[in-house]
Backbone:
């Protein structure tokens, strides 16, 4: 019985330890595609693209830091979502400004 109980506790703790952020991952993928599309269409200059890519990299690094302890808390998810919202607005602004491509 003790081995069974140990296995159940171990299984439950490892299930909790997996920090997943599928919504954030999908959103980051969508935003990266928006940046690529903007570069391909000429809506983004090389400089704008580089800045937006760097912002996406910072968001990915933040997400990895949040996942590092095995749990992404609600407040960490909120912080991540705010960063993604800011990045989304930046992408939209840069794609719709009147700058020409370099």
Residues:
């Amino acid at each position: 019985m003790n081995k069974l109980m140990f296995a159940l506790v171990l299984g439950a703790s490892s299930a909790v330890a997996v920090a997943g952020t599928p919504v954030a991952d999908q959103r980051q993928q969508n935003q990266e595609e928006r940046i690529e599309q903007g570069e391909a269409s000429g809506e983004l200059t090389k400089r704008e693209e580089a800045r937006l890519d760097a912002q996406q990299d910072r968001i990915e690094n933040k997400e990895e830091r949040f996942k590092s302890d095995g749990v992404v808390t609600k407040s960490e998810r909120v912080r991540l979502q705010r960063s993604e919202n800011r990045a989304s607005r930046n992408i939209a602004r840069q794609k719709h400004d009147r700058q020409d491509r370099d």
Q: What stands out?
A: The chain has one domain: 29-102.
